Amino acid sequence: MNKKAINQSLNRRDFLSIAGTTAAALSVSSRFAFAGPLSADRKVRIGIVGGRFGLGFYFHEHPNCTVEAVSDLRPDRRDALMKTYKCTKRYESLDKLLQDPKIEAVFLATPAPDHANHVLASLKAGKHVLCAVPAALNLEDCAKLKDAVKKSGLTYMMAETSAFMQSTISVRKMYKAGEFGTLFSAAAEYNHPGLEVLYFENGKPTWRHGLPPMLYPTHCTSFLISVTGERLTHVSGMGWGDNSPVLKGNPYKNPFWNETAFFKTNKNTPFRVEVNWRGALRNVERGEWRGEKMSFFMPQAEPGESIIVRSDAKEGLDHGGFQVAKNTTETFKQPKWWETDMLPAPMRHDSGHGGSHTFITHEFIDAIVNNRQPLVNIHEALAYTAPGIVAHQSALKDGEYLKIPSFD
């Protein structure tokens, strides 16, 4: 049997064995539930809004989904959406798309400042919602979203890529299986140097102009929360800026290029998060989980290999001649979860942001079909989002230690 055939024949149980997990480890809170069996007769009719980020998903490949219509304010982007999703119906605005009675769900791949209002409008129109990150840019909108989702009874999911990266799926399985022991600290960073090229388009400022880094925290906060389920309760934040004229006059009144936050969780886990837009940095989204039995370190740059460190009873000497524990280090061979039955057959291929896009697509559609909560439901989405909002407030107050409100 060739390698391709072997990979295709491996099912979820085979890969769980590879990752060193057990069936018992999967009996956990529904917060961590993944997509279930397909319901062949159910077709979710979805509308896709936003012809940039919205192009990178796979609703047209899902056996339980039909792309009913697309929308963007710009004709060229509407055309791109129609071509990608092989869809003939288009609308000039979200408002018009929401009036279509055939559409039961929407994917909002729209600018971040619009997310809260767009979600509220979509829920009011009776549509299930998948929305790009972050959920909101202020705490008031976080509260409005929570209330609106609860009152609507509809499915809401945030399209956070880090929660569905292949490495994160592996770490989540390891954590459930108890391989880390007790986590004593964690860290995450999202580096996007050169982001200022997106600050202006055709000489006019875009929504990204001066966006505070910690208002875009979910690519980091999700690395811990989606694995352990714990909540970030307190934070001290710091920012760095250089009085650059590029930041002058931004609508957020933000003076920072880069921000670092030091979080405390409800399990007393220290968690350091960095979101950086400028500097001598490698572009990366990565996490670190450090435990008493095992630690896992995602690569410092993409592409790269993750490293596992395991505690060992052996003792030795360091370079100074002092006695130390001789822990073992190994390169982690990342399973390709997208080749398994975690996805429908037509979607078993690599995709954007560490293989996450097909998983996000499937998780949302499957949650609707099976009437269950998705992995990144409204409570998780706000748990990822709100800590960054408070961290930025702390940075503006020179690192003042602040409490993070709970939206559970």
| Known CATH architecture of the domain at 166-403 | 2-Layer Sandwich
Going by helix content, strand content and strand pairing, the class is alpha/beta
Stated plainly, the CATH topology of the domain at 166-403 is called: Dihydrodipicolinate Reductase, domain 2
How many extended strands?
A: 19
Instruction: Report the mean per-residue pLDDT as an integer.
Output: 90
Largest sheet: 9 strands, mixed
Strand order of the largest sheet: 18-15-14-13-7-12-11-10-19
Instruction: Determine the N-to-C terminus distance.
Output: 49 Å
- C-alpha-based Rg, rounded: 22 Å
Unreliable spans are 1-32
Regarding CATH, which class of the domain at 166-403?
Alpha Beta
Strand content: 15-25%
Topology:
Blueprint: H1 3-9, H2 12-18, E1 44-49, E2 65-71, H3 75-85, E3 90-91, H4 94-98, E4 105-108, H5 115-124, E5 128-131, H6 139-152, E6 156-158, H7 166-176, E7 183-191, E8 200-201, E9 204-205, H8 218-228, E10 232-240, E11 258-265, E12 270-276, E13 284-291, E14 294-297, E15 307-310, E16 315-317, E17 323-325, E18 328-331, H9 352-369, H10 378-396, E19 402-403
Parallel strand pairs: 1-2, 1-4, 2-3, 4-5, 5-6, 7-12
Antiparallel strand pairs: 7-13, 8-9, 10-11, 10-19, 11-12, 13-14, 14-15, 15-18, 16-17
Helix pairs in contact: 5-6, 6-10, 7-8, 8-10
Mind explaining what this structure looks like?
Residues 44-158 form the Gfo/Idh/MocA-like oxidoreductase N-terminal domain. One of its GO terms (molecular function) is oxidoreductase activity. InterPro entries: Gfo/Idh/MocA-like_OxRdtase_N, Gfo/Idh/MocA_oxidrdct_glycsds, NAD(P)-bd_dom_sf, TAT_signal. It comes from Larkinella punicea. This is Gfo/Idh/MocA family oxidoreductase. With 408 residues, the chain is an alpha/beta fold. The protein has a domain at 166-403: Dihydrodipicolinate Reductase, domain 2. The protein contains ten helices and 19 strands. The chain has helices at 3-9, 12-18, 75-85, 94-98, 115-124, 139-152, 166-176, 218-228, 352-369, 378-396, and strands at residues 44-49, 65-71, 90-91, 105-108, 128-131, 156-158, 183-191, 200-201, 204-205, 232-240, 258-265, 270-276, 284-291, 294-297, 307-310, 315-317, 323-325, 328-331, 402-403. It has a nine-stranded mixed β-sheet, with helices on one face. Strands 3-2-1-4-5-6 form a six-stranded parallel β-sheet, with helices on both faces. Strands 8-9 form a two-stranded antiparallel sheet. It is globular. Mean pLDDT is 90; it is low at 1-32.
